Amino acid sequence: MSNPFRDLPSVTKVLASPALAGASERHPPDAITVAARLVLDALRGRLAAGEAIVVDVDALATEVLAALDSQAAPVLRPVINATGVVLHTNLGRSPLHEDAARAAYEAARGYLNLELDLATGKRASRQGNVRAGLKALTGAESATAVNNCAAATVIALRTVAAGKEVIVSRGQLVEIGGSFRIPDVMAVSGAALREVGTTNITRLSDYERAITPNTTTLMRVHCSNYRVRGYTKTVELAELVELGRKHNLLVIDDAGSGQLIDLTPFGLPGEPLISASVTAGADLVLFSGDKLLGGPQCGIIAGRAAIIEQIEKDPLMRAFRLDKMTLAALEATLLLYRDPKKAIREVPTLRMLTTPLAVLKQRSDAFASWVRAIPGVTVGVWEDESFVGGGSLPDVSVPTIVLGLSAPGLSETELATRLRTGTPAVVTRVQDGRVLLDLRCVFDRQEAELLGAITSAVSSV
Ligand SMILES: *Cc1c(COP(=O)(O)O)cnc(C)c1O
């Protein structure tokens, strides 16, 4: 009987293959040896399992090179978001405005006056300008920013309610994307959750009856990613504030999505306006920076100066504080809001959310005519619906325009997979036997690349 392992080449022999000749310019020698060993080990395993394999040294060397190239490439890479979902958590939520992206880039690649007042040469707060911008936009006395809204909730509750009770309606015990659950966040903060009411009905009297000498806070949590409909009753923030004042309790509003400009006129009702929460008298309002605000991932706490000051003194602040890149991007994003009309036009998240259907239709028709020129593709354009995503506006379906693609000889899932795994990666929706492309979240600068991606996805049918 022949020994199948006899033909197995040595590592040295694989390394000597011409296929690996240029590898040492791109990869460290140790990594090349390790990769070759791994490829040979895998082959040995297949031989041991009884597979009949013709061993080809050059083919093995090519496999080693492919493994090395894939190790050297970052996993994170730009994706064209053709899903139409503007706040797509899996795709990084809000894209940044060029000014914000550039600010982050400049902050990253050099030094900056992060904690230095250039006028006096003295140490300054890293939050200074962000605080000023947030105060102006929300009307709050003060504000601070941490890593995300989850961190904002933990540190705010810890500061005002550790070891004490916080009253929340049972209709508002939300879970956002798996790991953020109000009861768990509450537990981490050290505050005791006191649930009141039922899933659909919570009255002011429910809150009032639950108040004990140990209660410090009434909390409202926005039902970001769901709605309770039908026979329902919730307590308005202003009523909670009134009750809080009467009993000397604080009121925290976890608003979630961070709407700074009223989007109702654009057909997007139902998210709390941050300035309205401040006006209603909430002591602290918490929201994300990368949802409707359209900035970098962060969590903002706006409210009473004395409490913000206390929060900033918490040792956790050091763990939760923003890095220089995020601060620079947030500051640049907030500057765009000085002119609300400009913000709607230019902050990518706001622009995408408010793109008129007619504009999207015109753009989609033009793009479809280019796609039609690609051999082997059929494309149609029609009206459809999408959602905002990112735990915002869960029951507002946004009318949109889609391009429906199909390629004879390719299943819709195969076409979607090819687009997703190509370069650039294109993420689409698959529906009713077609791959749907929504140009709402595709930047103008990406159109040529998208066309190229479609061409290569269908070219090897
Ligand atoms: C999204 C959301 C959070 C979590 O925000 P992250 O910034 O993702 O941590 C918390 N509370 C509410 C109400 C939200 O909508």
Overview of this protein structure:
With 461 residues, the chain is α/β, with parallel strands linked by helices. The protein has three domains: 4-72, no CATH class; 79-88 and 352-459, Alpha-Beta Complex (Aspartate Aminotransferase, domain 1), CATH 3.90.1150.180; 98-346, Aspartate Aminotransferase, domain 2. 42% of the residues lie in helices and 17% in strands. It has 19 helices and 17 strands. The strands form five sheets. It has a seven-stranded mixed beta sheet with strand order 4-12-11-10-9-5-8, sandwiched between helices. β16 (429-431) and β17 form a beta hairpin. α5 (98-109) runs antiparallel to α14 (324-336). The chain is globular and about 90 Å long. The two termini are 43 Å apart. The mean pLDDT is 95. Bound molecules: pyridoxal-5'-phosphate.
Secondary structure layout:
Elements lengths: L10 H5 L7 H4 L2 H20 L8 H16 L6 E3 L16 H12 L6 E2 L4 E2 L4 H11 L3 E5 L2 H13 L3 E5 L5 E2 L3 E2 H8 L2 E5 L7 H7 L4 E7 L15 H11 L2 E7 L17 H7 L3 E5 L10 E5 L1 H9 L2 H5 L3 H13 L3 H7 L1 H7 L2 H16 L5 E9 L11 E9 L5 H10 L3 E3 L1 E3 L2 E4 L9 H13 L2
The protein binds pyridoxal-5'-phosphate.
The site of pyridoxal-5'-phosphate has 15 residues, from helix 7 and strand 10.
